Amino acid sequence: MTTALEGRELTQVGPGTVMGGLMRQYWIPAALSSELVRDGAPLRLMLLGEKLIAFRDSAGRVGVMDHRCPHRCASLFLGRNEEGGIRCIYHGWKFDVAGNCIDMASVPPHQDFKHKVKAKAYRAVERAGVIWVHMGAGAEAPPLPALEILDVPDDEINVSFIQRDCNYLQALEGEIDTAHFGFLHAGHVDPDDVAEDDPVYNTVTSRAPEYHVIDTAWGTQYGAYRPAGPGRNYWRCASFLFPFWTLAPNGEFGSHVHARAWVPLDDGHTMFCFLWWKRGTSAMTLPQPAFKDGRPIGGTGRGNKFLPNTTDWLGRWRLAANPDNDWGIDRAAQRDNTIYSGIEGIHLQDQAITESMGPIVDHELEHLAPSDQMITRTRRRLLMAARALRDGGVRPPGVEDPEVFRGARSGYFVSDDQRGWPEIYAGQLAAAVRPPPTPLRAAE
Ligand code: FES
Ligand SMILES: [Fe+2]
Q1: What is the mean predicted confidence (pLDDT) over 398-402?
Q2: pLDDT digits 0-9 by tens, 254-308
Q3: How far is residue 10's CA from residue 367's CA, in Å, rounded to a whole number?
Q4: How far does the centroid of ligand 1 lie from the alpha carbon of residue 44, in Å?
Q5: Helix, strand, coil shares, percent, the chain, to 5
Q6: Would you place residue 441 in the very low, low, confident or very high pLDDT band (cuts 50, 70, 90)?
Q7: DSSP string of 131-192?
Q8: Which residue, by CA, sits nearest to atom 3 of ligand 1?
Q9: Residue of the CA atom closest to atom 1 of ligand 1
Q10: Are 159 and 129 within 8 A, CB to CB?
Q11: Is 0.90 surpassed by the pTM of this model?
């Protein structure tokens, strides 16, 4: 079980917390590149419990900094983004993207001390249409993580952001919990109604899979298996990657190049950042699942409806179906079993279930089962790494050795391979499609 202390250490991410310290070692996907335009309005950006602003200067460079002006703490959100920097509208002090004060307009020239003033700015780079932020304190930032999706040219990557009203950990744990698929998403699907070569068929034929769960160089991994005919198993494999990434099993292992981040905005809000290869075979690129008579499977509709973005700290990429309207639950569909959950859309089902736990789940109320071993192992791995960093300065996995992420792939497959899980995984990986590597842009 997870104690109350462990629960706090796992879920609190603000400055000075043990998990916040771990998160600040890594690059964080923070916003779409398209959210910032040259000399356009600054963006309010909440990350790891810190209120920041982001802006794009006249040269196209991105600045990310504490929203409080170093003079007397007026919000730079109100600032004028003009001619190579952001100018505070209170007394006209101006800052470049690195936080340097480049104009102290309210002070006579002989009293000017702008070279001594610096806004608290974080490093930012752009890759795959995403602005990545490093909130660590050291002089040097590590390279970007060598995620397989970042080997793909930018124009072959799709990106989506969706905010979730709960702690990052419970959102992430929903991803590494394959046992829920046969209930939450497919509890209403009778195997007789589905074609035998459809991946859904194997999931609903046996709703209680067995698992292999292992520690890996990048975090943790499970291989969940169910029988799929004589001598064959249907495998669903997924990973947790430090510090908040998941690779989901919702695509064909051979081409399922993607990555999913559960970025803590603050302790009670998470931004889901999803990058996927347009040419991969997955739930994002395949048609909606259907019964063998052609009818779409209820509750698997695609597309999320968003509220308009606002300028609020937590106003970006919010779904129209949310706790205020019970995620649009349709009790009639639930009752007549056309949709087991009564909620339309697989992403929304996951979103509803993790938000329904409240902002931060009370871990002392849980009764974890053998089917939760991926979750307990991942919690332990996160906690041990965060404490080792706090207590001994041990850099967590993938910071100094970003190549560890490149070995992580997920997806489903059917196999007659009867060897152990690591060998089966290695065999699948060796046969998988790999996109051509493109050089990662050096951190600036
Ligand atoms: S508070 Fe920003 S210039 Fe004075
Ligand atoms: Fe799910």
Answers
A1: 95
A2: 999 999 999 999 999 999 999 999 988 888 888 888 999 999 999 999 889 999 9
A3: 18
A4: 18
A5: 30, 25, 45
A6: very low
A7: EEEE---SSSPPPPP--GGGGS-GGGEEEEEEEESS-HHHHHHHHT-GGGIIIIITTT--GG
A8: 91
A9: 72
A10: yes
A11: yes
Residues in the chain: 444
pLDDT digits (tens, 9 = 90+) for 191-225: 999 998 887 888 888 888 888 999 999 999 999 99
Give DSSP secondary structure letters for 215-261: E-SSEEEEEEEEE-STT-EEEEEEEEETTTEEE-S-BBGGG--EEEE
DSSP label of 27? E
Quote the tokens at residue 260: 């999913």
**Angle of the 4-11 helix axis to the 373-392 helix axis, nearest 10:** 70
pLDDT at 118 (0 to 100): 97
- CA 134 to ligand 1 center in whole angstroms: 25
Quote the percentage of the chain above a pLDDT of 70. 98
**Please, which residues have CB within 8 angstroms of residue 104's CB and are 6 or more apart in sequence?**
93, 112, 113, 114, 117
- Verify whether ligand 1 is closer than 6 Å to residue 387 (CB atom): no
192 versus 437: which is more confidently predicted?
192
Structure tokens at 266: 């603050």
On whether the CB atoms of residues 304 and 290 are closer than 8 A, the answer is: no
CA-to-CA separations, 39 to 32, 318, 321, in angstroms, rounded: 16, 25, 33
